[in-house]
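Researcher: We are triaging several targets before committing to wet-lab work. For this one, the compound of interest is S-adenosylmethionine. I'm pasting the protein sequence and the ligand SMILES. What I need is the predicted three-dimensional arrangement of the protein with the ligand bound, expressed as structure tokens, so it can go straight into our comparison scripts without reformatting.
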Amino acid sequence: MPARKETTNRVRTVRRYRSRTATGVVANGEALDFLRQVPSESAAIVFLDPPFNLGKRYSVHEPSLDCRPEQEYQAWLVEVLNESARVLMPGGTLYLYHLPIWSMRVGAILESRLQFRHWVAIAMKNGFVRGQRLYPAHYSLLMFTRGSPAFFCRPKLDPARCRHCGEYIKDYGGYRPIIDANGINLSDIWDDLSPVRHRKHKYRDANELPTALFERIVEISGAAGELYVDPFAGSGSGVLAAVQAKMHFKCCDLLLDNCRIICERLDTRRT
Ligand SMILES: C[S@@+](CC[C@H](N)C(=O)[O-])C[C@H]1O[C@@H](n2cnc3c(N)ncnc32)[C@H](O)[C@@H]1O
């Protein structure tokens, strides 16, 4: 086991929850420092939705948060992944949500420590064609486990239907009675949910992933009483989904305003 690096005091606890309905910690600070404080082999799920280094302004106070030199960003991301792999329990699952180019770069590095399970394509609308490239139509969600998964549930979905006649869009042939009874197995292409939470339901200006995505992840890889870790928690939809599934949580965000949103949502249970 690699030695734990010395912790810094760049992370502070915003709130600790110890009730029958929610158990966990909301922390404010740098993700890497936060992860270094999480015990080894403790988490059933580590969910990573880091800044993509696209020059987004997450905050007026931190204007350069999302525009680092590429090599510096990669070195930081690899350290985040190494720490995340360390905190995963045997059979735990690490998810990394990112752009395909970064998933390709760091996925190969992750493979030396964890077992590759999936590259899930999360369909996106409103991408832009740039340069001599095809139209980008998905984000990638990498899924790695430490050994064989301790918890795994394959969700069943309702088949897509024609919105005019209500019939199934695909022909399932002889499998139709099984599909009618059980639904279809979730595949590694997720085009039934949007990767962007609708503006109407957002808690802040920056992008938020939809709660349905987190509910799915927790359903696949979570279990009651186990730990969910989210170092880039944003407005906390992942935390809310974990709490709903009776998991404990440890989450962090660099921006105190986001931590306050998470606490407010936990206090009021707003999904
Ligand atoms: C892509 S967003 C995550 C959104 C989140 N999944 C949600 O659904 O709300 C990245 C988040 O990481 C935070 N962040 C950026 N750099 C960070 C860092 N070095 N350490 C911790 N959090 C950071 C940002 O404030 C932002 O909320």
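Researcher: Any quick observations?
Model: Residues 5 and 114 are 21 Å apart (CA to CA).
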